[in-house]
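Anyone have C-alpha cells for Kynureninase? Sequence:
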Amino acid sequence: MAFENTLEFAKQLDSQDQLHKYQDEFIFPRVNGKKVIYFTGNSLGLQPKRTKNYVDEVMNDWASLAVEGHFYSEKPWWDYHERFANPLSKIVGALPSEVTVMNTLTVNLHLLMVSFYRPTKSRYKIICEEKAFPSDQYMFQSQVHFHGYKPEDAIVEIKRREGEHNIRLEDVLAKIEEVGEELALVLIGGVNYYTGQVFDMKTITAAGHKAGAYVGWDLAHAAGNIKLELHDWNVDFAAWCSYKYMNSGPGNASGCFIHEKHHNNSELPRFAGWWGHNKERRFKMEPTFDPIHGADGWQISNLPVLSLAPYLASVEMFDEIGMDALIEKRDAITSYLEFILHEIDKEVDSTFEIITPSNPLERASQLSVLLHGEGRSLFDYLMKNGVITDWREPNVIRLAPVPLYCSFEDMYHFGQILKSGILK
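Reply: yep, here.
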C-alpha cells in the first residue's frame, strides 16, 4: 500500500480497520485534557474496561461466600486457572494441557530451569543473547553459581557483529554448533526487548536439540504479540509475563508452557507444591507428591485469584479477536509508523535510525529508534505533549503501536508532535 502522511489518509485506514472499535475497550490516561498516544504496551498494557467486572466478581464472592467461594462462586476459585487453558493455548500455539498460569515471569524461569538446566561435568553451558533483559542475566548468573560454575565459564552470549544492531541467525546457529557437546541449555528472549528483533524460534530450537540441549524461550515481549507455534516447534519450555501485550495489570501472573513430551517423564526434577498435586486427591493431604498430568503439575502454591481475574478478562478478549487478526493490524500499523518516521526525518535536521529489523518477519509491535542529534529533552517533550513512550540510554525511544488500542490517526499525530519537538 502507498501510504500518505496526512490526517485524512490515517482516518481512512482507521475506517477500514476491523479492530478499531477495540480502542473503546480500554482506559487511556489523559495529558492536557486529551487522551494520550500510548506507545508503552511493551512495558505495561492499558487497562481493559471489562477488567473491573472480573475483579469485582471475585471481591463480591469473597464478601458473600468467604472460603466457600473456592467451590460455590460462579467461577470457583478451585479451578479458576483452568479457564486459561484453551485461550492461552491458542495465543502461544500449544495444546491446552501444555500451558498453565502461576507466579511471575522470572520466578517461573527459575522453576523451569530446575527441570531443564541439568548441568553435568561435560555439558553445563547456557547460550543466551547479548543484552538480554537484565532479569534474565541475573537469573543465568545465579543459576550457574548455584550449580557450582562461574558465569564467565558457563554463560555464552551470542553477540552482534561490529556496527550492527541485531543478531544474525547464522551467528546463533554457528555458536550452538561451536559449543556443541558442552551445551546444556539454549534460553533466549523470543523478541529482544531493546531492539524489537524477533528470533527464528523454530530454527534455533531445532539446532539446540541437534546439539543435545534443551531449548526454552522467554516470551515476555512475544506472547500476545507474535504468532507462536510452541508445540509444533518442539520447544521444551517457555514462560511469559501477562502485563505487557496481554494487559493484565502491573506485575501480574505469568504463563508457562511445558511440551507434552515431558509430561510423563518422572525422572525430570521439579520443585513441588500441593497445587500441582493430583487434583482429585489434593485434600487427602497425602505425604508423597503425585503431579497433575500436564503443565499444571508444575504449579506449587494456591493461585492468586485476584491477580488472575484481570488476566482472564484479557485472554477472553484475545479469544474473541484471534491472533491472525491482531497480527494483520500489527503489521499494517507498524509499517505506517515506520513510514511516518521516515517522512518526518526528511523534514528535520536530526536523523532517525530505526534499529529494529526492517523485515516484517523479524519484527513485531515495536520500533526502536536511535535519535541522532537528539537527547532526553525530546523524550520529555513527547511525554509533556501526550505521547507516552519509553527512553533507553543513550538516545533510543521504543515505540510499540499495539494493535488493540493504537490507531492509525495516533501514528499521524505522533509524527506531528515529534516534528514540533525537534523544531521547537
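Residues 285 and 340 are 61 Å apart (CA to CA).
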